[in-house]
């Protein structure tokens, strides 16, 4: 079984319980800071069309759909798309078009879009050539002047430096932690301009607060964290790198 096949199998097994696992493991404020930082970087407009490249079960997709005209949501794990489709039906959301698709291959979306987002996806693609191909596909899907926002594991963070740069999690999911130079090069290679790379989720311990019901009292900390994600110095703090480029 290939690395990619192992990940698809793992994602399929996790899909039904992923949302509860993410909030319980990472924390409600972690999720909030991540979503708000990404949405802030995307600068969405009501008439925008958006490609969510590696949408998973739709944690970010659903937030984007509230703010734009159309979302194309792609993921290579069929169970994740099934969960997202169920959420869409239950919430009466009709402006999201889903596809089971591998973003390292030709994308099934015909129209070019205004914005592309890819959240914690490229870090799991197990070769530099395929990571480059995925970002090239995102670039090609954008209209001229369109913006792309990608988040990846951050190896510039002083806390993350104690972790392995590359490896596999239990269950066989591959990962690669990017430093800011590598992340910038990833966007620069296909032709993105005005590239910025900052940190995202700069404070840790959100799960601890979540598990003790303290997150409601510490909303100001989350707002500060989102603000920090706009500053270059945050790349030495964030759990993720938040990378933005314009075509």
Essential attributes:
alpha/beta, Rossmann fold, seven-stranded mixed β-sheet, two-stranded antiparallel sheet, 9 strands, globular
Textual characterization of the structure:
There is one protein chain. By secondary structure, the protein is of the alpha/beta class. The protein has a single domain (3-246), classed as Vaccinia Virus protein VP39 (Rossmann fold, 3-Layer(aba) Sandwich), CATH 3.40.50. Helix content is 38%, strand content 23%. Strand 2 (70-75), helix 5 and strand 3 (96-100) form a beta-alpha-beta unit. The termini are far apart.
Topology, element by element:
Elements: H1 3-14, H2 18-26, H3 28-42, E1 49-53, H4 61-65, E2 70-75, H5 78-91, E3 96-100, E4 113-119, H6 128-141, E5 142-153, E6 166-168, E7 174-176, H7 180-188, E8 193-200, H8 206-211, H9 219-228, E9 240-246
Parallel strand pairs: 1-2, 1-4, 2-3, 4-5
Antiparallel strand pairs: 5-9, 6-7, 8-9
In short:
The protein is of the alpha/beta class and 247 residues long.
- Number of DSSP helical runs: 9
CATH superfamily: Vaccinia Virus protein VP39
For the biggest sheet, the summary is: 7 strands, mixed
Q: What structural category characterises the helix and strand content? A: alpha/beta
Give the SSE string. Answer: HHHEHEHEEHEEEHEHHE
Low-pLDDT sequence parts: none
What integer value in Å does the Rg equal?
17 Å
Instruction: Give me the side-by-side strand order of the main sheet.
Output: 3-2-1-4-5-9-8
Kindly, what is the distance between the CA atoms of the first and last residues, rounded to a whole number of angstroms?
37 Å
Share of helix, binned: 25-40%
Number of DSSP strand runs: 9
**Overall domain count:** 1
Would you identify the CATH architecture? 3-Layer(aba) Sandwich
Beta-strand residue percentage: 15-25%
CATH topology value: Rossmann fold
C-alpha geometry: globular
**Overall pLDDT confidence:** 94
CATH class: Alpha Beta
């Amino acid at each position: 079984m290939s690395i990619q096949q192992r990940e698809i199998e793992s994602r399929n097994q996790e899909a039904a319980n992923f949302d509860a696992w993410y909030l319980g493991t990472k924390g409600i404020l972690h999720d909030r800071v991540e979503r708000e930082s990404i949405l802030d970087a995307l600068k969405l407009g009501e008439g925008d069309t958006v490609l969510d490249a590696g949408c998973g079960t739709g944690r970010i997709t659903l937030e984007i759909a509230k703010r734009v005209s159309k979302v194309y949501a792609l993921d290579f794990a069929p169970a994740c798309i099934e969960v997202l489709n169920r959420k869409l039906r239950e919430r009466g959301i009709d402006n999201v078009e889903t596809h089971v698709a591998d973003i390292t291959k030709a994308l099934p979306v015909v129209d070019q879009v205004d914005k592309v987002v890819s959240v914690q996806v490229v870090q799991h693609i197990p070769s530099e050539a395929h990571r480059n191909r995925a970002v090239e596909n995102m670039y090609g899907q954008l209209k001229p002047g369109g913006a792309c926002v990608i988040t990846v594991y951050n190896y510039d963070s002083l806390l993350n430096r104690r972790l392995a740069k590359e490896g596999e999690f239990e269950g066989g999911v591959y990962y690669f932690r990017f430093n800011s130079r590598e992340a910038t090069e990833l966007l620069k290679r296909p032709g993105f301009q005005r590239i910025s790379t900052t940190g995202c989720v700069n404070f840790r311990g959100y799960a601890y607060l979540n598990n003790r019901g303290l997150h409601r009292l510490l909303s100001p900390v989350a707002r500060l964290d989102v603000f920090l994600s706009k500053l270059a110095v945050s790349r030495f703090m964030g759990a993720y790198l938040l990378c933005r480029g314009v075509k």
